[in-house]
């Protein structure tokens, strides 16, 4: 950990706090695949992020792939 890391972590949490409050207790779907699965460092970061989401009260569900179908559905939701 670098000396700057705690400051970045606090800034990230402060930025995320409104979203944590808004989505607390809700189920969220996360599409995971492609390059994110191939890079070991990204895999570890992804796992940490999922644990953090659960820890702050969200219910993450991970789906693999789905590419165009999931992307199209997400665009229709906006």
From TrEMBL:
MF terms in GO: acetylglutamate kinase activity
One BP term from GO: L-arginine biosynthetic process
Pfam families: AA_kinase (PF00696)
Residue ranges occupied by any Aspartate/glutamate/uridylate kinase domain in the UniProt entry: 27-76
Keyword Transferase: yes
Keywords, in A-Z order: Transferase
InterPro entries, per the entry: AceGlu_kinase-like_sf, Asp/Glu/Uridylate_kinase
Keyword Transferase annotated: yes
The protein, known as: Unannotated protein
Organism: freshwater metagenome
The organism's taxonomic lineage, starting at the top: unclassified sequences, metagenomes, ecological metagenomes
């Amino acid at each position: 950990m670098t000396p700057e890391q705690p400051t970045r972590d606090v800034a990230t949490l402060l930025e995320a706090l409104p979203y944590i409050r808004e989505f607390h207790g809700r189920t969220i779907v996360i599409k995971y695949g492609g390059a994110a699965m191939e890079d070991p460092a990204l895999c570890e970061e992804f796992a940490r992020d999922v644990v953090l989401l659960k820890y702050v009260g969200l219910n993450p569900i991970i789906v693999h792939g789905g590419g165009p179908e999931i992307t199209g559905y997400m665009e229709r939701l906006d």
